[in-house]
Amino acid sequence: MNAQMTTTPSNPPTPSPPLSLESVRQRLKRANLYGLLAQAEQILHEPWLAHVLEIEETERQRRSLRRRLEGARLGIFKPLADFNYDWPEELDRQLLDELMTLSFLGDAANVIIVGPNGLGKTMLAKNILHQAILRGYTARFTLASDMLHDLAAQDSSTQLTRRLRRYTTPSVLCVDEVGYLSYDSRYADLLFEVITRRYQQRPTVLTTNKAFGEWNQVFPNAACVVTLVDRLVHRSEILNIAGPSYRLKEAQERTARRKPQRSTKKPSK
Predict the structure, then answer these.
(1) What percent of the residues of the chain are helix, what percent strand, and what percent coil, each to the nearest 5?
(2) How far apart are CA 70 and CA 73, in angstroms?
(3) Of 158, 160, 175, 269, which one is least surrounded by beta carbons within 10 A?
(4) H or E element: which one contains 195?
């Protein structure tokens, strides 16, 4: 007996909910489609309207993401998936996972990543900023030396005020590598100005290889160091990383891999 073949009818597509006049007006206004906005009542029930709005909003989101990525100046960085969690001798994985949820943004809490060279502080900071950008926030990444040199180069208080906005207006600012160089009191005052203007309003992500008790070596003779540290750590999340340099480990492994290749090469005559 031949088995009877049966077919299961596919479910019909779920119709989109009808557009309300108020929501259409708001969406047209956000998209700067003022010609259509003036005719909102007449075109409300046109079958093409929802599709046009979707196309325009998708394109605007794409352009906005591109602008935010370009403005952040993240450069090339490894994704968090490539981070070797087993290498550091000390790392609070639970805190790191929480930071990647961006919960600190709601409290305008600073994030301070402390640890020696070569353990991935910059990589982690850039991944936090990248996640913020994907969620719709603005961000900026800068080396501490680049930011302070940039601010110190301004010739007048008016120019300095204008340039400070570059670092105070983004939703998230990352100041990388504080502690690798020492600065005079002028530079300490500039960093203090940036942190103070962002204090309890917008979070700052900062990486450093120095414990806060050693910051007087970074800014010797600066009177604002104690207050600067106090405002940084107030309502902050501090992620400590400890262990040997992972970059040195990678360099040693690369040398070991290439050594057999070098030994088999014949010297040129």
Answers:
(1) 50, 10, 35
(2) 6
(3) 269
(4) helix 185-198
The alpha carbons of the chain give a radius of gyration, in whole angstroms, of 26
Contacts 24+ apart (CB under 8 A), 228-231: 228/188, 228/191, 228/192, 228/195, 231/192, 231/195, 231/196, 231/199
Quick one: average pLDDT of 133-150?
A: 97
pLDDT in tens, 30-81: 889 999 999 999 998 999 999 999 999 889 889 999 999 999 999 999 999 9
Sole residue written with tokens 């005079």: 184
What is the rounded CA–CA span in Å between residue 52 and residue 46? 10
| The domain made up of 80-249 is a member of CATH 3.40.50.300 | yes
Q: Please state the domain extents for the chain.
A: 24-41+49-72, 80-249
Q: And the tokens for 180? A: 């690798």
CA distances from 69 to 47, 48, 86, 214, 254 (A): 35, 32, 30, 34, 32
Residue whose C-alpha is closest to residue 83's, from 206, 240, 251, 247: 247
Tell me which residue has tokens 């007006």: 25
CA atoms 124, 126, 132, 137: torsion sign: positive
